[in-house]
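Researcher: Please translate sequence to structure tokens.
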Amino acid sequence: MASKRDYYEVLGVARGVSEADLKKAYRRLAMKHHPDRNPDNPKAEERFKEAKEAYEILTDANKRAAYDQYGHAGVDPSAGAGAGAAGFGGFADAFGDIFGDIFGGGRQRSNVYRGADLRYNLEIPLEEAARGTETRIRIPTMAECETCRGSGAKPGTQPTTCTTCGGHGQVRMQQGFFSIQQTCPKCHGSGKVVQSPCLACRGAGRIKQHKTLSVKIPVGVDEGDRIRLSGEGEAGVNGGPAGDLYVVIHLKPHAVFQRDHNDLHCEMPISFSTAALGGEIEIPTLDGYAKIKVPSETQTGKVFRLRGKGIKGVRSSTTGDLLCHVMVETPVNLTPRQRELLAELESINVKDAGRHNPRAKSWMDKVKEFFAE
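Model: Translation complete:
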């Protein structure tokens, strides 16, 4: 035993330290040297085992007294004092006490649970997304039972402490050298048993109901954006806090515009004659109509950009643009006179195709070269 360090030195505490301070010291060392946090460091594992052993001895009043009087020999199993003090039987208990408290699974485990978060899909028009609005939604949710105030017990009665787990919500089962902690099968972790269930909620403490909420839609929300309504989710269990409600925005398809982040796109059909001769046309925007001057000889696919006629996003300091994509429309349902004029135009174009239809002539020249090879 001479090779072992002093247990108080291992934990970094004085000899007269309280059990609470012992626990704090061990918790700090255990978190630092735990093997799961140091998988490739054998020295850390040794430090963890050393701290565990010291903690097990010093938190046992009898073993601590023996250690204080006789040192390591007083708790050496082979010496007959404190048999099994540093063996595996104590490891599971110490692990459950310390790490259970850290991660919420120990003997003092709280049986209060936060309610579940909810999701609500809200479909809104593009105009409302651009300008912002306020709307009301009706959602189904689990709310605290008003009759029993969430206890699950019939008014005038109270839940009783579970006799199986003693109110801890968990039971401990011994398997060989190890002690396993699991949820109590009788109270299902609540630590309480309802002898006379509430008739309104049938002992659940919560009831399903609908509620109407007002939702403020900020200016510029986009597809998939989420609006969080704190505390509007499901009610908590055993008095726990309610969850949150997340309203997920979906944009309805628009008859004219397609949104691309802060920009808007639209197709702008123009007549054959306007494309050839040029002119001025009106196009819609979210703020009304705007005029665009179409230059002569405009082709399908040309894009006109209207600065600042898009949308100002939620997280943007500038407003997007409106991009108008030109589509030259071929006339249909022609009258005899229209056919006559178009035929005359075509005959003129054919005589000097390179001048009047340069793209068509260039394409035909490439086709001829392809078949000539």
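Researcher: Any highlights?
Model: The chain has a mean pLDDT of 79.
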